[in-house]
């Protein structure tokens, strides 16, 4: 079994409320869930208004499939340009 984790950190310029942050997070999460069938959640800095950290997770028996799926998800996030992406990482765990 292979577990893939895509970590994304965004800078939300000009945002001064958790409501605004939640709007951006919901949009990103829905698009990634609907397109790539990944589990996704906010994982850190929940109280910060200007930073959003999300992690998307998928499981498969095949490592190249996991890597490819998460790379496509990352490419979609970059193309959506919903917020400034300041950090991304794809981690593959063999269990």
TrEMBL record:
It comes from the Bacteria. Coiled coil: none annotated. Pfam families: DUF503 (PF04456). It comes from Desulfolutivibrio sulfodismutans. This is DUF503 domain-containing protein. InterPro entries: DUF503 (IPR007546), TT1725-like_sf (IPR036746).
